[in-house]
């Protein structure tokens, strides 16, 4: 590998790693100076030798500057890679306990002319700013329940106060720490699982512009007893629309069966319109957790997992369910529902073996010779139908069990849903899970193949022993094989596929992934997607927390 370093400030990291001595630097290259804002001074703030850096809170509110490039970035790679994820787990007297609880940290790497600039910055959500001003977290996160919450008593008034909190969304998190997406009108949003957390950001400065407010009243703002404060964290965004799934919690207060609303929002609009409602088959009262879902050309596939929202935990903001805000109720059944995008009708609803899929990979239709769809095939990262993965992602496990083989097994699950009225769907492993070390999550595909028959998926896999996925895997769903990238002790985030402009092969492009290295330190890796070999890495001057999901914004031609 040829290495070429940009002669920038970032190649002299010791001079600006410490936040106490950052302000007077000037760039020899004439480029913009790095900007450095400490979260709080830390005793080891100049050290990058922290093997648990992936799970260590970001030390600086924000930083931006030039990045050192090792290797050769493709000349065609022009645009901005954005990554979101939890990055601050300690504020004042609060120390969060779960990976999903951390306050949103954005990372940006912009590639132009073989060079790279980078930034990271905390999202100024109400959850984060209020935690800083109160000296403790005051919102309910996935696992974190505000401690000295006065609503601990079970009297009727407290229950009513909690319910009002749920309807108005004031107690649940507004921390958009999961995904980032550019809408087709150019607005860039960070998202998580509460509708109120959706936040507009500036993709260049990573500054928080403000809340993305839906104007439809669906989330309970204008209509009392509209219990729709939750959403899938992964909307499907196309050139014309934004589509998502809202678990319908109205069954908490009505006799209606629980269900899901599929909603769509046109480009440029803030108004979601209901496409249709899917009724849950299981229950009794709560829909299954829907972090993501899948779409095909004509259909939306809504999962109903036996891992269900916990009414008690959502309504009483200091109560924990068996899995944090979720209950595992295998006897309630596991289902997949298929809704027609055009009519909003549910055209298939099948029972399937238990699955725990946080992230669906893709879906496509099988068609008859006359083009009529006969079945829907859906692929997801399945934790072998076991919610134990949620416990494996506590910060204690991640920080203390490094090198221990405690990561639960996972696979690429392939579901087949017949469209002939059959009551059952099929479920099998798409390839031998040993191919990818029995770990599988944080997936992406070539976006041109969304909803279509496809061959390749990119995801995090494992080289065992490990307590977190530690490889980047390219899954070939036709040959049923996997290629892997791995280095000792690494913690990768979602590998994100970016197609070469003008490409015709599905894997003609690069895979971009930000990685925490063994002894601390972070870099963004660029792999040739076809060969699945490293072509460049772009180093940050200090370590960043491991994040979740990425997005690519190409430069305007
Ligand atoms: C889940 C619910 C809530 C909040 C969720 C939040 C804030 C974030 C969820 C993030 C997820 C699910 C990330 C998944 C990552 C998976 C990884 C890294 C897997 C690795 C495996 O090997 C609420 C809104 C608090 C309440 C409802 C439920
Ligand atoms: Fe996700």
UniProtKB/TrEMBL annotation:
The gene is gb12196. One of its GO terms (biological process) is carotene catabolic process. The keyword Cell membrane does not apply. The lineage of its organism: Eukaryota, Viridiplantae, Streptophyta, Embryophyta, Tracheophyta. The keyword Membrane does not apply. GO terms for molecular function: carotenoid dioxygenase activity; metal ion binding. PANTHER family: BETA-CAROTENE DIOXYGENASE (PTHR10543), CAROTENOID CLEAVAGE DIOXYGENASE 8 HOMOLOG A, CHLOROPLASTIC (PTHR10543:SF94). Belongs to the carotenoid oxygenase family. This is Uncharacterized protein.
């Amino acid at each position: 590998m040829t290495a070429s370093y940009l002669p920038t400030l970032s190649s002299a990291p010791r001079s600006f790693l410490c936040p106490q001595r950052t302000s007077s630097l000037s760039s020899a290259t004439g480029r913009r100076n790095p900007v450095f804002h400490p979260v709080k001074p830390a005793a080891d703030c100049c050290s990058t030798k922290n093997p648990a850096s992936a799970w260590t809170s970001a030390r600086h509110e924000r930083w931006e500057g030039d990045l050192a490039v090792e290797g050769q970035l493709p000349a065609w790679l022009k645009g901005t890679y954005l990554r979101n994820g939890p990055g601050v787990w300690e504020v004042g007297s609060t120390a969060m306990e779960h990976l999903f609880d951390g306050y949103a940290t954005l990372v940006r790497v912009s590639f132009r002319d073989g060079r790279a600039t980078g930034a990271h910055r905390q999202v100024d959500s109400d959850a984060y700013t209020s935690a800083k001003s109160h000296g403790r977290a005051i919102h309910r996160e996935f696992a974190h329940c505000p401690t000295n919450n006065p609503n601990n008593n079970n009297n009727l008034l407290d229950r009513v106060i909690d319910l009002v909190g749920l309807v108005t969304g004031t107690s649940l998190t507004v921390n958009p720490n999961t995904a980032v997406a550019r809408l087709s009108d150019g607005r860039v949003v960070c998202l998580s699982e509460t509708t109120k957390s959706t936040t507009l950001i500036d993709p260049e400065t990573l500054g928080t512009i403000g809340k993305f407010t839906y104007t439809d009243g669906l989330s309970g703002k204008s209509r009392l007893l509209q219990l729709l404060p939750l959403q899938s964290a992964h909307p499907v965004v196309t050139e014309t629309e934004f589509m998502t799934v809202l678990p319908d919690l109205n069954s908490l207060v009505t006799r209606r069966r629980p269900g899901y609303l599929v909603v769509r929002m046109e480009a440029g609009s803030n108004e979601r319109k209901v496409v249709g409602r899917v009724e849950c088959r299981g229950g009794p009262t709560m829909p299954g957790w829907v972090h993501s879902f899948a779409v095909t050309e004509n259909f939306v596939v809504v999962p109903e997992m036996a891992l269900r929202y916990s009414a008690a935990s959502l309504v009483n903001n200091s109560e924990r369910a068996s899995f944090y805000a979720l209950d595992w109720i295998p006897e309630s059944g596991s289902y997949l529902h298929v809704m027609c995008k055009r009519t909003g009708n549910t055209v298939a609803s099948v029972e399937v073996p238990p699955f725990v899929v946080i992230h669906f990979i893709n879906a496509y239709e099988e068609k008859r010779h006359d083009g009529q769809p006969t079945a829907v095939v859906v692929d997801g990262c399945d934790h072998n139908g076991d919610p134990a993965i949620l416990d494996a992602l506590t910060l204690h496990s991640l920080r203390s069990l490094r090198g221990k083989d405690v990561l639960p097994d996972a696979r690429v699950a392939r579901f087949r849903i017949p469209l002939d009225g059959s009551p059952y769907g099929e479920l099998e492993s798409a390839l031998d899970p040993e191919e990818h070390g029995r770990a599988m999550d944080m997936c992406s595909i070539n976006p041109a193949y969304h909803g279509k028959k496809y061959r390749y998926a990119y995801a995090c896999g494992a080289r065992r022993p490990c307590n977190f996925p530690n490889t980047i895997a390219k899954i070939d769903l036709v040959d049923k094989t996997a290629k892997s990238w791995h280095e000792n002790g690494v913690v990768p985030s979602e590998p994100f596929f970016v197609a070469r402009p003008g490409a015709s092969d599905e894997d003609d492009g690069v895979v971009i992934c930000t990685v925490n290295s063994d002894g601390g330190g972070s870099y963004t890796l660029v792999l040739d997607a076809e060969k699945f070999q490293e072509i460049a890495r772009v180093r940050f001057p200090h370590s960043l927390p491991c994040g979740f999901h990425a997005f690519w914004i190409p430069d305007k031609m």
